[in-house]
Amino acid sequence: MSLIEAIRSALSAIGANALRSALTMLGIIIGVAAVIAMVAIGSGARERVTAQIKSLGANLAIIQSGNVTQGGVRLGAGASSTLTDEDARAIIREVDDVVAAAPILVTRAQAVFAGTNWSTQITATDLDFFTAREWDIAEGRLFEPEELRRGEIVAVIGQTVAKNLFGEVNPLDQQFRIRNVPFKVIGVMAGKGQSALGQDQDDVIFVPLDTGRRRIVGRNYARDASVQTVMVKFANEQAIDPGIEQTRALLRQRHRLAEEQDDDFIIRNLTEIANTATAAANTLSWLLAAVAAVSLLVGGIGIMNIMLVSVTERTREIGLRLAVGARQRDVLAQFLIEATTLATIGGAVGIALGIAAALTIANFAGWPSVVSIETILIAVGVSGMIGVFFGFYPARQAARLDPIEALRRE
Fold first, then answer.
1. Long-range contacts, 18-25 (Cβ 8 Å, 24+)
2. For the residues 79-104, what does the mean pLDDT come to?
3. pLDDT of 62 strictly over 60
């Protein structure tokens, strides 16, 4: 029997029991659809996490004010600002492979323009912040060094502030007020989207560090030239760990901490946190795929069961074929092709349903999904292999039937 004849015979047998064949394929259809949908959702989640992490910038470490002890009482992290502008400048000068070190002060305040107001985050910093965050300007310009030095009353705003405070008005060169201080808009930042914690990164107004310290945040910071946070960007990921150790030693020396004293600052490696988040997203993706793959196993068992029933029902037909000269390999090929055809058709339908399910979930739930060609090819290949694997035993049983016994069977 030629391959074409075997395929024709297999399709004829499948068509003769259309309802049973459809029910047999249902397990494969559900399994393939589930695998594609779950992998698409998992891949979308991974890409979303990756995009959020990239929006923070690469190779970053954050230094924050730490524990302060007064009279034997530990006041807790951030109770007192122990970091200064000079600490940031010293880090750039003395720590290896540092690209930028941005001193930062953050507060919230109401911004007012004409008859509109908007509560937003005010970030007082310098140009190193934008280098560290890899954040580009969309319109206008960033601060000039002379504006930073003199503490000019100028501002660069995020996309969310531009939309909600200025509406249809072009914000460039417009004046608005923060705590009754008039600021001039000199630039609008490019969009960053949400952070990994769900915070809108575009809902922010940037002002020069000294301006924010004197005019908005408060006199205590201005008197001490202190800051809440220093963001440090390293040249590459390999430089982060040794750079953090150098930074810790430098800050302890600058803050005159005795050997037995705890650090009065906290250093967090954002790249390490980012890698953990990416690993968690990958684990979720694999877990979803593994759960969906169970459906494929169940579908394969269903194919084996139906093929065994088919062998029993067609025993006389098999005996007749063998009696008139068919070889065992011809019978084996026929039943294997039937099982593989069932699985392949089921896989094709499952692919269509899986893609539709992934797109539907993405549309209604607002959750991203990524359907890749690789996933589709793997699903097709796996469904075909399931047909071969679970169809081999029934096919082998059919091929090994004794012609005489088969013809005698009712």
1. 20/306, 21/306, 21/342, 24/302, 24/303, 24/306, 24/342, 24/346, 25/299, 25/342, 25/343, 25/345, 25/346, 25/349
2. 89
3. yes
